[in-house]
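# nightly structure sweep
# worker-07 picked up a monomer target from the shared queue
# config: single-sequence mode, recycle default, output format = structure tokens
# input follows
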Amino acid sequence: MQWRRPIAHEYDAVARFEVEEFVSDNVVILRNVIAEEKRRRSVEILKLRGAPHRSGEFSFTIVPGQGISVIPLAHITMRQQASQERVSLGNAELDAMYGGGAYRDAVTFVSGPTGIGKTIMASTFSAAGIAAGERCLLQSFEESRDQIMRNALSWGMDLDAMERSGLLRVVSEHPEVASLEDHYVSIRQVLDEFQPQRIVIDNLSALERVATQRGLRDFIIGLTSLLRQDDVSSLFTSATTSLLGTQSVTESHASAMTDAIVLLRYVEVAGAVRRALAVLKVRGSAHDGQIREFTIDDSGFHIGEPFTGLAGLLAGSIAQWQTDAPGPSGGTGGEGASS
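# output follows
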């Protein structure tokens, strides 16, 4: 077997004399490519004489005491069975919008601008699992453990007490402390050790600072496949690139790989900034597709009535009142009621 990095360039000739791969039975190529000012290690089995193998590059990292650990895209298989069990997201109105809660093995993706309420939704999801006696892992790439505990307490959730009960584990790391592949290995190790029934990743878009687009895609595919195989209920959050909610790189990668999508947006109505929520997708279930207002107070988040007479809410464009439609507050829209 020949183990060799391309010498002249990562994607140039496989070997120095350009004949070694023809006389070798097996050829494995290791690459350490820099793209977008970020490094990504990958392994490719170019040749495995007499045996089937997966083609293409797969991200890997080196784990002390264990050796090479490959993000397992190479052996992902489709599940033959899907869970019919429903679990609560921690909010009765949101459960109703889902058509009765999320499926046990579903991956929920919550997207919205900074400060909109993604973390409170994630904390509520965690607290609901703990109230049901389930173990929950809360992995944060944006806030410290103390910030998470303080903020949750202001919403009426004592995560510190939940952690002391042994049902919650909070892990907080800045993305820059490790490579994307190392973060994947760390999460997988905690999953193996703690065996949670729920997991929250807050927030995926922070990983864009240390990942290439290809690496981030591999990370999301590998993690969601791992969670589905173990029937782990999961919720991922992602921040959009602007306050009006334009799409992020993470959103474009994750939307097709997740089972449910919740969009959170700021909207301007009659000179005031309000919050809007929409459930865009719940795979395998009927759901409420209306755009509803939601609010946050010291008891959590609350979903209200649908916005009516408005257009362009999710696109971030100026929302216009229709002249014959009542506004969300019950008033009648007319001239001067545009936002």
